Structure formats: structure tokens, C-alpha cells
From TrEMBL:
<dbReference type="InterPro" id="IPR002347">
    <property type="entry name" value="SDR_fam"/>
</dbReference>
<protein>
    <recommendedName>
        <fullName>SDR family oxidoreductase</fullName>
    </recommendedName>
</protein>
<dbReference type="InterPro" id="IPR036291">
    <property type="entry name" value="NAD(P)-bd_dom_sf"/>
</dbReference>
<keyword id="KW-0472">Membrane</keyword>
<keyword id="KW-0812">Transmembrane</keyword>
<keyword id="KW-1133">Transmembrane helix</keyword>
<dbReference type="Pfam" id="PF13561">
    <property type="entry name" value="adh_short_C2"/>
</dbReference>
<feature type="transmembrane region" description="Helical">
    <location>
        <begin position="28"/>
        <end position="50"/>
    </location>
</feature>
């Protein structure tokens, strides 16, 4: 997901991400696990976005960024 298998994503700075860091496969796995439990039994026909708020950035645009550091791995 981040091409950084041995790196803790909480230590990587990404100023263009609303959460300030890239995501982690374990965070996606947590949702997958939840969806397999009885607590999620009434959830149907929806798309759940797990992107740390990047979809929100498209709505407001990235014009406020000073550089392209958010794209660097």
C-alpha cells in the first residue's frame, strides 16, 4: 500500500495528507475484520473509503500546498 513494508507509517511525514502520514495495511485490515463481525451485519451496498482524508483534499484542492513533498515516498 505504501511500498514501505518495514517502515512505521506513523513516523513518515506527508504534509499533503490530512492525517499527515501515509496509511498502513493494518488500518485497512481492521475495517475488513470489522465487516466480518455480527456488528456489521446491517451494512449493505456501500463504499467505505479508507484514505486518511485524501478524498477530502480533492474537494478543496491542493492549491494550498507549498511544494510536492506529499507525493514523495
Amino acid at each position: 500500500m505504501t511500498d514501505q513494508e518495514d517502515v512505521n507509517p506513523r513516523t513518515v511525514k506527508r504534509p499533503g495528507y490530512p492525517l499527515g502520514r501515509p496509511g498502513d495495511a493494518r488500518e485497512v485490515a481492521g475495517l475488513v475484520v470489522f465487516l466480518t463481525t455480527p456488528a456489521a451485519a446491517f451494512i449493505t451496498g456501500t463504499s467505505l473509503v479508507i484514505d486518511g482524508g485524501l478524498e477530502l483534499m480533492a474537494a478543496i484542492g491542493a492549491h494550498g500546498l507549498q511544494n510536492d513533498d506529499c507525493r514523495k515516498v
